[in-house]
Write a structure and sequence with these properties.
Blueprint: H1 2-27, H2 58-61, H3 72-103, H4 108-133, H5 138-161, E1 168-169, H6 171-204, H7 219-242, H8 249-271, H9 278-298, E2 300-301
Helix pairs in contact: 1-3, 1-5, 1-9, 3-4, 4-5, 5-6, 5-9, 6-7, 6-9, 7-8, 8-9
Length: about 300
């Protein structure tokens, strides 16, 4: 049992790695680094220079809106992102086989959750293909992010079903965490919209004048900041309320730490002209907070 639980935790960490890789792809403007799918410029492995491309490679460049020539850095960032997602799929196939072997006669719900995990991963890969086919259509990128969050909560559900921790009965905490989860999801959706605005502004300015990018964002950016403040306040209240429940204290402390890091990342983005390396970190912390809060919520009943 311990080995299965540890393997499920490793897969969960791998999901976060996929989310981080996706954030790096967006930050480096590498989303169309491989303008076709599942190949990259018609090849299984992109070359390190233009010399290694097929003779008809220019037809793929016509699909790109950033690179006028072959950019191996962009191609490899996107290619590595695909490799990580593919590796996740292989890990989950192993998880499905293991689940059926171990739990089919005793806990079939675990087996079906594992199957759902695999289906969600395939759906995420299909969404990734749509993003490439539609040249990074905004609504599909948002769905891509939401699908990644859904993907991350499935192993949390599996771990919860195998968990022997005591369930806490606290109606106030139950309501607070439910509200916080809803608001946090809204914050992530708005954050995705802000990211798209930043992409559009940066592209229109030829990725120059970084200090003016925030000035071009609409009211969604300010709404996102307000909701971020509300979310942080709710997490702090939840942390304070959880101090009276020993079993929840470590989980609440973890959420509190992630909120502090997320606040620092958000302030850095707003104060230092959206540093490129902070953007994927901010995205990853948001995903960790959502999944962590979801896991926290599962341990609370009215």
């Amino acid at each position: 049992m311990k080995a299965y639980i540890n393997y499920t935790r490793i897969i969960l960490l791998f999901v976060f790695l996929v989310i981080l890789a996706g954030g790096i792809v967006r930050t480096t403007q590498s989303g169309m680094g491989c303008p076709d799918w599942p190949h990259c410029f018609g090849m299984y492995v992109p070359p390190l220079s233009e010399k290694g491309l097929p003779p008809d490679y220019k037809k793929y460049l016509d699909k790109q809106d950033i690179d006028a020539v072959y950019n191996p850095a962009h191609a490899w960032v996107e290619y590595i992102n695909r490799l990580i997602t593919g590796a996740l799929g292989i890990l989950i196939v192993i998880h499905v086989v293991w689940s059926f072997k171990k739990f089919f006669r005793t806990k079939q719900f675990i087996c079906w959750l594992s199957c759902l995990f695999l289906l969600a991963t395939l759906f995420e890969g299909w969404l990734g293909k749509l993003v490439v086919d539609t040249n990074l259509a905004v609504i599909k990128i948002t769905l891509h992010m939401l699908a990644a969050l859904f993907l991350a909560i499935i192993p949390i559900l599996i771990l919860h079903k195998l968990n022997t921790d005591k369930i806490v009965h606290d109606k106030t905490l139950y309501v607070l965490t439910t509200i916080a989860l809803s608001i946090l999801l809204l914050q992530i959706i708005l954050g995705t919209d802000v990211r798209e605005q930043v992409d559009a502004v940066s592209k229109s300015l030829n990725y120059q004048q970084r200090d003016t990018w925030l000035q071009h964002l609409n009211a969604v950016f300010n709404i996102h900041k307000v909701i971020s403040f509300i979310t942080s306040l709710l997490i702090i209240i939840i942390f304070w309320r959880s101090l009276s429940h020993a079993v929840l204290q470590p989980k609440a402390a973890f959420l509190f730490l992630i909120v502090l890091l997320l606040m620092a990342a958000g302030i850095s983005l707003a104060s230092f002209n959206i540093p490129a390396f902070i953007q994927p970190i901010h995205l990853l912390l948001s995903a960790i907070l959502f999944v962590g809060l979801f896991a926290f919520r599962l341990n609370i009943k009215k």
